[in-house]
Amino acid sequence: MERLFVYGTLMKGQRAHNLLENSKYLGKAILKGYRKMDLIYYPGIVKDKNSIVKGEVYEVDENIKERLDIYEGEGYLFKCVDAKIELDSKTMNVKVYEYIVE
Predict the structure, then answer these.
(1) How far is CA 67 from CA 32, 35, 46, 60, 63, in A?
(2) Which residues are catalytic?
(3) Cα–Cα dist 95/6, whole Å
(4) How many other C-beta atoms are found inside a 10 Å radius of the C-beta of residue 73?
(5) pLDDT value at position 101?
(6) Which of 8, 49, 92, 100 has the fewest CB atoms in 10 Å of its CB?
(7) Using CA atoms, how far apart are residues 11 and 19, in angstroms rounded to an integer?
(8) What is the pLDDT of residues 66-82, one digit of tens each?
(9) What secondary structure does DSSP assign to 10-49, as a single string?
């Protein structure tokens, strides 16, 4: 199991949230050092030391992570990277999908 920070179409109430079915919701969180971009059909995040992104954190198993990698275009649209978030005033290590900028 690993923790994943989501900030767009995977969040509660969004069109791809069903991909997180059976994943444990850990709460709302803040990711510092990134900003969210509107890429028309979905958002992406890029590094920006003066910005923050609000999102949600889930505990996902290996099967769900593999499906999410396909959905996110891991390796060509997004890369899954290590990050630190703040959840309930605590710092936590997570994975996050970062937009690949050419």
Answers:
(1) 26, 25, 22, 11, 6
(2) 72
(3) 9
(4) 14
(5) 85
(6) 49
(7) 10
(8) 999 999 999 999 999 99
(9) TSTTSTTGGGGTTPEEEEEEEEEEEEEEE-SSSEEEEEEE
End-to-end CA distance of the chain: 31
Nearest residue to 95 (alpha-carbon basis) of 64, 63, 70, 65: 65
Low-confidence ranges of the chain (pLDDT < 70): none
The pLDDT value given to residue 29: 98
Residue whose token pair is 């710092």: 91
- Cα Rg of the chain (Å, integer): 12
What is the model's pLDDT at position 68?
A: 97
Quote the mean pLDDT of the chain: 96
